[in-house]
Amino acid sequence: MFIFDPRQDGKVCHKLIDILFIAVAATICGFSEWDDMATWAEYREEWLRKYLELPNGIPSYSTIRRVFDFIDPKQFEICFTEWMKEITQVKKGSIVAIDGKTMRGIADKGKDKRAVHIVNAWCSENKMVLGQVKTDDKSNEITAVPELLVMLFIKGCIVTVDALNTQKETVRKIVKEKKADYVVALKENHETLYNEVKDYFAEEEKTEIKNETIESYRTIEKGHGRIEERVYYYSTDIKWMDARRDWEKMNGIGMVIRRVEAKRNKTEERAFYFGSVETVGEYAQAVRKHWGVESLHWSLEVTFREDACKTRTGKAPENLAMLNRLALNMIRKDQEKYQKKSLRKRKTVALLDESYLDYILQINFGV
């Protein structure tokens, strides 16, 4: 797979690969606006020439911006996913959480410009983005998730989605086409099934869940003046459920009770799920690790300042989102030199120390 260059041959002064390389390296160093990328490149021209020909010097910021405004985001997404297949070993049983994030800074009410919504696939094992697709808004996630699944190599993994994306077509694609398992959230958007599962566990709670067919798993976490207890319940004894015929490989139903005690305040809430997994351990791990995708969203907002981005025209916002995820994965791949440093600090080191930037490129691309 390659990225098509839409520019006219006679008007091209800078190679596409040079512009892509500059944008990726600059993003690793903390620059996410086109003019900042161009300025960084001007001061790093000698270093860049170790990797690039740069026949006409450093491209201007307007050239970089125009190129990313022209590049087909779908091609960029597919190239990214293919690259992730090459460099990342996704182990059997890994949790792959699929969830969306909105780039709010792109919205412009005055020009009727909507925010861009990106659906990400996040591997908890490697803490890396495996792929992304763009939707026009939050409601279109339902059609975007199956599209994203097509691009992923997740055989043997456990896929998790929120209640919005608990859809029969999504579940079927996970099992039949991707040869993976799933644990999906259940809310009122599937009212009959939701009430059936909720009532089932409510009846069991009346007898303190002594039913031997229901497995349980409990975790307690303490810290920062807060105690959080989670109790996971999972039952595979569901022959009585008509819904098994409607949902591919539906093997069990689950409930999580989450109790939090902080500063003398206590809260308790319940959430419900169903899945194709066989054990409460797999179920608990899937539910718990699904929220790891929130750490991705936090990193994109805080470390890459994605919500502050004002790039709004054409295809550039979606391509810039891909650059951020590409840079995040590349930095995270460092598990030796600065494993204990935060992503933000690693970006700073890459900015100040060219040898570390060389190292990041080497472990990702072998250059």
Description:
- This protein is of the alpha+beta class.
- It has helices spanning 16-28, 34-43, 45-48, 61-70, 73-87, 141-151, 168-177, 191-206, 280-290, 293-303, 316-332, 343-352, 354-365; strands at 95-103, 116-123, 128-135, 158-161, 181-186, 214-223, 226-235, 252-262, 265-275.
- A nine-stranded mixed beta sheet has the order 3-2-1-4-5-9-8-7-6, with helices on both faces.
- The two termini are 19 Å apart.
- The model has no long low-confidence stretch (mean pLDDT 89).
In short:
The protein is an alpha+beta fold. Helices cover 41% and strands 21% of the residues.
Class based on secondary structure composition and strand pairing = alpha+beta
Topology, number of strands: 9
Distance between the terminal alpha carbons, to the nearest Å? 19 Å
How would you state the average pLDDT, rounded?
89
* CA gyration radius, whole angstroms: 23 Å
Write the layout of secondary structure elements.
Blueprint: H1 16-28, H2 34-43, H3 45-48, H4 61-70, H5 73-87, E1 95-103, E2 116-123, E3 128-135, H6 141-151, E4 158-161, H7 168-177, E5 181-186, H8 191-206, E6 214-223, E7 226-235, E8 252-262, E9 265-275, H9 280-290, H10 293-303, H11 316-332, H12 343-352, H13 354-365
Parallel strand pairs: 1-4, 4-5
Antiparallel strand pairs: 1-2, 2-3, 5-9, 6-7, 7-8, 8-9
Helix pairs in contact: 1-2, 1-11, 2-4, 4-11, 5-11, 6-7, 12-13
